[in-house]
Amino acid sequence: MAAVLARGLARGWAARARVGQRCAAAGGQDGEVGKAQRAAAAGEEAGGQPTIFSKIIDRSVPATILYEDDKCLVFRDVAPQAPIHFLVIPKRPIPRISRVGPQDTELLGHLLVVAARTAQAEGLADGYRLVINDGKHGAQSVYHLHLHVLGGRQMGWPPG
Questions:
Q1: Hey, which residues are catalytic here?
Q2: Which pLDDT score, from 0 to 100, does residue 21 have?
Q3: What is the DSSP string of the chain?
Q4: pTM of the model
């Protein structure tokens, strides 16, 4: 019994290592994972400097805007990971999802409703994926809360 358990555990760890290698190859140090690690090392979470998203909000950086209201902005991702890939961001800067509080409940719900309505407007009737990256290990490369909406193809599982 112990030998069977040991072989099973060994296979499980080997499978996890292969998945980790595939993930590293896909995101790697030169992709989003690398960007996230550099952003964390630079202390970008602490704020002080405008993010690319705050520059999109104030129109000092161009973007293809799909929707805007007084609480949020929706625009196409400049490096799409699916045929349809857009971001939903709050206008009020929140560095990461793990930093929200009860005062953010209404805003977070609004972001989800806007994401769903925009997905519908973009023709994603067959489904889509919502992603929120949080912190260095979550591969968050911009410290301004943002929801990725990806669709237009079959998504794989597990995601990362």
A1: 146
A2: 38
A3: -HHHHHHHHHHHHHHHHHHHHHHHHHHTTTSHHHHHHHHHHTTGGG--SPPHHHHHHTTSS---EEEE-SSEEEEE-SS-SSSEEEEEEESS--S-GGG--GGGHHHHHHHHHHHHHHHHHTT-TT-EEEE---TTTTT--SSS--EEEEESSPPPSS--
A4: 0.78
